[in-house]
Amino acid sequence: xxxxxxxxxxxxxxDRIAEIVGGVPGREAVAIAGCEEAARxxxxxxxxxxxxxxxxxxxxxxxxDGRAVGVVQAGEDLSFRxxxxxxxxxxxxxxxxxxxxxxxxxxxQRVEPATPAGSWYIGxxxxxxxxxxxxxxxxxxxxxxxxxx
Length: 149
Known about the structure:
With 149 residues, this protein is an alpha+beta fold. The protein has one domain (4-148): Gcn5-related N-acetyltransferase (GNAT) (Aminopeptidase). It is built from six helices and four strands, in the order βαααββααβα. Strands 1-2-3-4 form a four-stranded antiparallel beta sheet, sandwiched between helices. A hairpin with a 2-residue loop joins β2 and β3. The chain is globular and about 50 Å long.
């Protein structure tokens, strides 16, 4: 696509990445969180959480005319980990509502395959709905494959 630039994310991209990744949560995220609003808040929180495997540090953005329109989060170990900052985010997002969410999380962990050591893993690939079906996702995949090699 003409004018499309793919580059590593910077801290300045944080809000836009959170908007793209957490803006339209998938069915799985909504099922785990219990509702779309909680899924969106948690997803955006994970992107903004310092040191998060889902954070901007592991992201590349697709930029068109100076605007980030897509994001891919990839690396060697992007598996979700329960840490104190994550626990605080969970409590801030769900409060005591975490109790019904916990069994969903445990079920997800049982079916989540372990990522082999040294492998490259794509945690997220999202394109702003306004820019979908233009080859941006494919370009992000191509970029990620080159980066993995």
